[in-house]
Amino acid sequence: MSPARALCLAPLAILAVLAAHGCGRDPAQVRWDADFERALHTARADPAAAERSFIDLAETAPRAVDEGAARRELVRLVAAQGRTLEAARLLLAIAERARRQDDRARAYYELGRLAETRGRLDAARLVYRALVRTYPELMPGERALAHLLRLARADSFAAVDQHLAWTLSLRETLAHTALADDLLFQAADEARRRALLAERAGRPADWDTAELLFRRLADGPRTPLWNDAIWELSWIHHRRGRHDAEITEIRRILRTREELSLFGQDEHPYYWMGQLRIARLLLVELDRPHDAIDAYLTYAELFPKTIKKDDVRFYALCAALRSPRPDDRARVAELADLLRSEHPDSRFTRRLDDARADPRGPHCLPPEVTP
């Protein structure tokens, strides 16, 4: 069979498999799913009937995941009617007795959120801390850790110090869990925040501590926080005037763009922001117009569907006007023609004469890419 023929038949084969699985579904599961959908649609018009339905659905659920879904909807329905204490009791029952770990963790998390919204911050902190210790591999544990830092920052520097001391005490216990890097990242981010506050207040800023902590993450395994740690490191270099080091860090992130997954390119915001930062650094801070031309035009190549194509072509033209190299100056006319032909309505096309008159003036100053 030819490859083209096989490709045409592939969707039919997939549909056949799906149809076969659909026909083979457990009739009890099909009935339960239909009843669950009806209860969802009934909830707004007749909440009392929907409440009875969700109770029955939880008791007759074919699978643990279905029971969890029914009990969560029951909690939402009860809470929406202002029956807060009853909703809390239902959540506590789920947290203590649910068959699935995910359901127990989520119920504890909702209890913490409920306590916080009611102003019971001490109770909320207790729940959040329990979540961090008990469910570090699940999303409720990660969110609870973030809430703890948020609450501490809303209180005082002393509260933040106490929170970080507590997280430090967990480093060994949670060293091999998904939260290990989050604990370190929180400390690094707080060090960065305090250095920034000191700098803005005109006091000596301790950037060394923030840099050291982010470096530990950036030079470690590629975890979900790896990109963020390198990104923050690059901004520390920027604040300290280390622009070559800043570019080196950003390029570490950009190199990961070349690694394609099964589902195609993952276009992280750091990719396009990082390339624009590199181009601006080369043009403005480092005064390397030849390299800036390449960096701006590379942006257009990396992101062919970008709405900033006229932006980068214009700033590449500004860089060519600044360059002492004849081959760069020769590109000015080419870039100007490209702007006129492909971007006739762009504001940058109207700036061409100003750019030629003063390539180092405000018309040729690209905006900063803010973090």
Rg computed from alpha carbons, rounded to a whole number of angstroms: 28 Å
**Mean pLDDT, all residues:** 92
Report how far apart the termini are. 53 Å
Largest sheet: none
Which bin fits the share of residues in helices? Answer: over 70%
Q: Can you give me a brief rundown of this structure?
A:
By secondary structure, this protein is an all-alpha fold. Helices cover 73% and strands 0% of the residues. The two termini are 53 Å apart.
Please, could you describe this protein's structure?
The structure is a single chain. The protein is mainly α and 371 residues long. It has helices at residues 3-23, 27-42, 47-60, 64-80, 84-97, 101-117, 121-134, 139-155, 157-170, 180-200, 207-218, 226-239, 243-255, 269-285, 289-302, 309-322, 326-329, 331-342, 352-357. It is elongated. The protein starts with a helix and ends in a 14-residue tail after the last helix.
